[in-house]
Amino acid sequence: MYGSGTLAASGKNTGFGSRMFVYEVVGLGQNGVTDQLNYPIRESGSFHITVPYERMNQEMRRITRLGGKIVSIKPLNADNANNSQEVKATSKTESQQTTENNKSKSMTEAKSKKGKKDVPVNTYKPKQPLIGRCIENEELVQEGGIGIVRHVNLDISDSDLRYLEGQSIGIIPPGEDENGKPHKLRLYSIASTRHGDKGDDNTVALCVRELVYQHPETGETVYGVCSSYLCHLEPGAEVQITGPVGKNMLLPDDPNATIIMMATGTGIAPYRAYLWRMFREQHEDYKFNGFAWLIFGVPKTPNILYKEDLEELQEKYPDNFRLTYALSREQKNAEGEKMYIQNRVAEHSGELWELMQKENTHTYICGLKGMEDGIDEVMAAEADKHGVDWSEFQRQMKKAKRWHVETY
Ligand SMILES: Cc1cc2nc3c(=O)[nH]c(=O)nc-3n(C[C@H](O)[C@H](O)[C@H](O)COP(=O)(O)OP(=O)(O)OC[C@H]3O[C@@H](n4cnc5c(N)ncnc54)[C@H](O)[C@@H]3O)c2cc1C
Ligand SMILES: NC(=O)c1ccc[n+]([C@@H]2O[C@H](COP(=O)([O-])OP(=O)(O)OC[C@H]3O[C@@H](n4cnc5c(N)ncnc54)[C@H](OP(=O)(O)O)[C@@H]3O)[C@@H](O)[C@H]2O)c1
Q1: What is this structure's pTM?
Q2: Nearest protein Cα to ligand 1, atom 20
Q3: In this structure, which residue's CA is closest to atom 19 in ligand 2?
Q4: pLDDT in tens, 145-166
């Protein structure tokens, strides 16, 4: 079911403000209470009611109070305007209903009136952050790996926070900085799909490395303020959340697209969201049948974040998902040096170049800033073989919104 807070009156932020939606409702019988409703009630099956955006939550609560269940929400448009009052028998299983709910929610969320993608941004600002709650905090680095990286899942139910795959959220750590001012927010890429890890639209997950370094002058061990806070957050603890932000790492709607993903370390976060949307969730309006290629650089095998899940996907979808690792401290490149992601890109530069020629190929780079130059260098050498100037080709891909970078 929908979380009651997921579609509240944030219409002004999202462009939904003046829109009408059609609820398909089951489980409401005729009785003294429902007699007072201003829409038709049937003894069985489902019926449709039209609700303006600003009354969506209120209406949801009312329907729930009366024992009804909303099985789908669709924007009122030419397709369903005519049948919005039609009665349709339903005998759906719970999981079918959940999938449909998710589908129709994503439809209502992802498209604006003109059919353009509606991207939610800054629903929660630093002055009035959302108070979420930690529900899971799991270690992702296996025994023998380097450092601490946690999968942190946050409850956002009863809130207006909606997000799309590829966006980030801000976290405001508690306490003050060295100037006695409240800590500023830090951004983290979202690692879950818009439906969250539980599929109920009520959570948002992050993949966070604890920043630890030696102070260059004192030699003292320094722990990053926000990353340490998140990595050690106890389930049940409250968290201040802002956002979502970011429009340049979104996944194209085209289910036949080629998606090239290059990541180092925690740069895997948005790709987890993409891959889960492509392969693990079921959607009516997005059935991925393109080609996804993840090139993933980490120091060693135990540092491969979400390893089991990624390898399971590769095994299950060998024609649609390819997985290539660069293990810098276990593998060597052709020069006998550390195997970095750009060395893997160099090994496959011919294939990557071919894929990039297709108009529906999108390339994503996420993680350490340091990898960008290396990737440019090897792709420039490949472009040169074809008599093409890489900078110009890359500029064209950026212009066509096919080249996406988020490095930190
Ligand atoms: C769009 C975006 C997405 C991001 N996504 C993720 C993500 O998915 N996962 C993730 O873990 N992080 C992510 N980050 C990074 C994250 O925002 C924080 O920067 C990171 O967690 C460190 O914050 P902190 O509060 O722990 O460190 P702080 O306490 O803020 O310390 C950071 C500061 O420490 C200093 N410092 C750091 N390393 C060294 C060093 N080796 N030597 C000397 N000084 C040093 C620098 O001055 C640096 O500014 C993302 C950043 C951006 C911009
Ligand atoms: N903005 C921030 O302040 C911030 C945020 C998150 C993480 N970090 C820091 O960034 C580092 C990475 O953390 P992570 O968990 O994301 O990743 P990680 O698991 O440490 O993996 C990063 C991988 O990228 C490799 N690498 C290093 N420099 C590279 C370069 N120039 N080009 C290509 N590959 C390169 C690393 O190799 P080698 O290590 O073997 O050289 C390693 O294999 C950590 O030291 C972490 O503390 C900083």
Answers
A1: 0.78
A2: 227
A3: 265
A4: 999 999 999 999 999 999 999 9
